[in-house]
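Q: Hi! First time doing this. I have a protein sequence and I read that you can turn it into a structure. Is that right? Here it is:
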Amino acid sequence: MSQKFSLSIVVASLINFSGCGGSNSQTAKNKFIKNQDENRIAKNDRENAFFEYSQKPNLKSAGFSKKPFEALSNRTQEHINYFIKYNPNAISEVPKEIVTPELPAVEKLQQGRFEKTVEFRERVQKVVDARESQIRDIQEEYRKKVEHRNEIIKILQSVNNQVNKEFIAKIVPIATQYAISDIFGEFGIIPKDYNPDSEILLADIKSKNSTYSKSVTFKISPKNAEEIYNNKDSLLPKVNFEIINSTISLQNISLNEHIASFDNSFKKAEKIEVSINNSSVNFSGIDKQLTIQSANLKDYKIDKSQFIDSEYNDDLPNILTSSPKAQTDYTKWAFIIGVEKYRDTDYVPYSKRSSEMFKKVVSHSLGVPERNIYLLVDTDATTTAIKDSLKRMKENIKTGDTIYFYYSGHGVPNANGKAYILPQDKFVDYVADDKALQLDEIYKNLTDSKANKVIAFVDSCFSGRTGAETDETLFKGKGVAGIYARDISTEFDKKRMAVITAGGKNEFSNMFDKRGHRMFSYYLMKDILSGEKNIEAIHNRVQRNVLDESSKKGDRYRQTPEIDGNKNLNL
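A: Yes, that's right. Below is the predicted 3D structure, encoded as structure tokens:
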């Protein structure tokens, strides 16, 4: 069985990438859209992709099949996976990534033998300020170039996805026709009976490659019937199938010019399922090249602690050891996320220590069993890991269970006043593109479970700033004002859930140097270890302690933990 199919492939025009800035970016975008149709390959010059495919080595023979329609689905998938390897490029060229500029080297500083500590600190600060001023200029220029490139990449992604979608839509029926030929092969006829008076021939039409067969009748003259009996081994009936919306049904069977008759039940649609495995769709590597680039420079700030040793006195381990141990309770669950070292933005000092200590606290004081604790720290706290682990935990929750949620890391605001957590691997500029990372969605995920009670602790700020002492933002080289709203709001089931956050909407979440923890987390864990169970009581005491301690650092560091939801819940 041979058939010819024509497949037109749209090849998008390439974009020349040069310059940066808003006006140039818009010009490039307009030029691309304008030339999109002008630069399409002429119809007569288009590759006959199907012909090209037919010249490739044949796939392994389908062989005999006792389940032809199941085999048809698998065979169609094989043809699709093989065929897509030869799709002409949807896009012929992609702008190269912007080269990351080299940052000024960190000057090695050491306190002089006769230099006072206060003088050394002042000298360190001057060096830090000078370096950060240099980097700020480099960062702004780098952001402009990267954002320009990213805008073009997004245009290319949109066009490429559409071209690939159209391509896939066209090759599925072609691949299915090929699969039909492979699975069923040629059909033969087996005459069974003939009535010369009514001129009715009863026969079986049988697939030569599979067990598929149908009993049919033909209205045929005695002379032609005799010819069929005499030449049955060489006659090839035509069996036509119709494929609509992933279903295949027998439409008609013909022998020479005679059309068979058969019961309507024979036309019953057979379901075939074909899935496109996106990971196997490789359009000459173009998809992998169309990646967004981070606009933030790493190592933007100097960690001053590398010059000035800071020893901390963490008393929580001793408090934990001396506090009563709760009985293990398998109805309790904990989901803990702590990100200290980010891939593409500033560190959050002590988040790792606080997150790991929080695990010990909920296990010891609240009785959460080890197997019911999900701890994701630093490189384990990726976007995929967070979403997959939340889903897995939710599947295990039973009616009446309790969930404790804890997050320590950067918080990111968006223009609509929504708060997002920042996984370790996520670009700050694009975290708001993933709704699953929005606090509202996380809270909804938790309360949509069978748990009767959800208690969340969020040690993060959502002002968009990198620190209390600076107006620098997480979006390096880009100001927060006028772009990212600070009126952060969250929505959740306020009967079944309570949330305690580290501070107000415009406040920064402080580290607690002398204890080696995040300040809010330290006082939270200390209060839980004291045996207090009421959420409102815990909040009141933590708020008072954090406010007093943060105020000692100065007005810019002032931090006031807040509570929302059902204040009457108990741990």
